[in-house]
């Protein structure tokens, strides 16, 4: 049985992924690093309170076979680009570096469709740079998930986002062929796909768009 280290357990994807990891018979221990206590108790679950600044102090405890990183913010919540970069690049990279140094063999990273370190678009470039830098850590297995629109009901009141999601739900069946990578999945489906990928690891590097994640969900 394996142990898992999860960053982003309170997020829209991460909260579903936490439940999947806890429910899986493959894991004897799940360690979640969060900024505030979780309203969840489970015999497999260990919760550590921390953030980017406190990670070095937590390093001796951040030991697991696999590290799952579902961290991220939005421009609305974090309008300052420097702070945004810390959340979407620096924190995931530091988490992966510590896990790798402590012996983790596999990393599972959520970024976004179109991620490209050479892009002139800040959001796309940031996602590309975190992919590039985590790939450079040379894990035995690196799994990168690039969702497009993330569908499903959020707890927060985001009327504009709800409208976009509703429109995307209508467009989804029309996105076929080369543009299928822009099809949306729910946060729960993305989490399920990540958990499924952890069951079958053969390639050193694997990148998942909609098509690959949908295939995992059919297993």
User: What fraction of residues sit in β-strands?
Assistant: 15-25%
The coarse silhouette is globular
What order do the SSEs take from the amino end to the carboxyl end, as H and E?
A: EHEEHEHEHEEHEHEH
Task: Give the uncertain stretches in residue-range form.
Answer: none
Structural class: alpha/beta
Write out the CATH superfamily name: NAD(P)-binding Rossmann-like Domain
Question: Could you tell me the mean pLDDT?
Answer: 90
Describe the structure.
The protein has 219 residues and is an alpha/beta fold. It has a single domain (2-148, 187-210), classed as Rossmann fold, CATH 3.40.50.720. 37% of the residues lie in helices and 19% in strands. The protein has helices spanning 14-23, 55-58, 81-101, 122-135, 159-171, 187-197, 210-217, and strands at 2-7, 27-34, 45-49, 66-69, 106-110, 141-145, 150-151, 185-186, 205-208. The strands form two sheets. Strands 3-2-1-4-5-6-9 form a seven-stranded parallel sheet, sandwiched between helices.
Keywords for this entry:
219 residues, alpha/beta, Rossmann fold, seven-stranded parallel beta sheet, two-stranded parallel sheet, 9 strands, 19% strand, globular
